[in-house]
Sequence to fold (658 residues):
Amino acid sequence: MDKTPLTLAARVLLYLILVIAAFAFITPVYVMVVNSLKPLDEIRNGNLLALPMAWTVEPWLQAWSKAQIGVQATGLKPYFINSFLLVIPAVVLSTLIGALNGYILTQFKFKFADTLFAAMLFSVFIPFQIVLIPMAKTLGFLGLAGTVKGLIFVNVVYGIGFTTLFFRNYYAAFPNELVRSARMDGAGFFGVLHKILLPNSAPIIVVTVIWQFTNIWNEFLFGASFSDYTSFPMTVALNNLVSSSTGVKEYNVHFAGAFIAAIPTLVVYLVSGKYFVRGLMAGSVKG
Amino acid sequence: MSSLDLVNIQKSFGPVQILHDVSIALKDGEFLVLVGPSGCGKSTLMNIIAGLEEPTGGQLLLDSKDITQVAPAARDISMVFQSYALYPNMTVAKNIEFPLEMRKVEKSARAARVQSVAKLLQIEHLLERKPRQLSGGQRQRVAIGRALAREPKLYLFDEPLSNLDAQLRLDMRTEIKKLHQRLKSTIVYVTHDQIEAMTLATRIAVMKGGVVQQLGTPHEVYNRPANTFVAGFMGSPRMNLAKAQVVDVAGALSLEFQTGNGKKITLPLSEQFAFLKRYLGQEVIAGIRPEAINLPTSNLEHKDLQRPFVAKIEVIEPTGADTQVILNFGGHEFTATLAPDLALSVGPETSFTVDLTKLVCFDAKTELLIA
Fold:
């Protein structure tokens, strides 16, 4: 290809825009990290963008185990654990239910299968706020209000629409003869799912797990509405840390806390990000 | 090994009837080929035998036991699929073992069975590979191996060779035939390829529009086709079909073909065709196989049953093994299969003979064989 001055200029402009965009995205992360490693005085007196003069990890220790959350000085640690206790079962359950739904909706030709799927898809578009009151009633009825179990229940129910969508579209493109063959070979209802479908679903499982993990980890409204101080997830605790009205605003601790809250999703994305993009594409093209 | 009886099987999807009253009785060790054009219902029939689809009416008996309502897994039938349907997450060994594992066969027995099947099909060196690392022919063998593993009462093959290239298809066809001869198993095989049907079957069911047109040995189906559809479908090149009048020429029953330009081709018939008397003065459809047309040489078989005629050669197609000649038989294009390396030329009128022993006649209206 000939490089005319015009294409060269376009190229330069393109890179310029990309570099600016990259800076725009990285700056908040930089600000968070830099300021979480400074004493509070430096933040008050100085430049937010400057590197620390006196490096310290004290804000991180504070945020992790000493800071005042609500009424107790426990740090974020117990809530970080709460979030894991919430996220892991919720992700596993919603993924398995999604796989089961996808299997039933695609491999068994029953009446209204498409209608049922359309109805489940609808749940994807329901805003969180609408389900708050009915969900509060349900949790009260089940005796799960204010517990981590209750939050697991809420997030699983809310996630089923998404996970069903993912698996249903993946299994719709799954070779029918494999399932028929397995049935003739003697695999039962769960045998087919367990031995044939799930082992061949790696891409869509990765997509679903990342999607559900990120959403449930970052979820705030359900956490704020349906938990108490023993069962707060990370997001709610972080909010309590940052917005506590008493005492001095310890920005360096807030930055450290926010970063701690972001680490798990960051790790999940870095580890399996390429599967995520690939899986999303595969699902969308085949589905 | 065992017998299979299909009794008045019917299948419809809503108002569309796919299978009309199909009844076939299969004895132990038979190799039945269901053959027909796409959409004739052969695959549906196979799925019904497998239990993957339910018939709307009729009964299925395996070893005289009613299996119409039995689940596919409990039927003791295994199937080789068109796409092979190998489980991509399992090795070849695991694939072959899978039906045994599902049937809770003991582990050491499973391993022994996998070994013996792999030896039979010569795939021992492939056992640790995944299906995606295999060629088409190897996948086919593994699929057959998986079907063999649990020694079922009945094997189903659903167009197993259609995904292979031409040379491999011939080889695998021979393999399957050998396998049948060795195992003496009962097999139902679906194909749209009439040559596969002829070579493999002990009996052929030719299907069209959900109706079995003819059920018989390859010899019967080829030489005594039940109607003009079977006549045209089985055999390559196709059987030549032309309308002819049954006439009496000086006391001899004859077939008279109109050529359009006022001339006629008349073939005097032999005693064997006495049954055509009731068609005297009426039209019938005459069917003549390409190999029933010969050049009038001195060393032809049953000489007194050869009838001469004259026709123009339009096209000569040498295939190496023989020569296909398209001739103008009274306005119809007839194909003749002749010996290779003949000194023939396109254009002039040439003398041929028809072998009456290979002539069949069909009713002009019902298109059924007259016998």
In short: The helical segments of chain B are 42-50, 92-102, 107-121, 136-149, 166-183, 194-200, 218-223, 228-233. Chain B has a mean pLDDT of 91. The domain at 4-233 of chain B is CATH 3.40.50.300 (Rossmann fold).
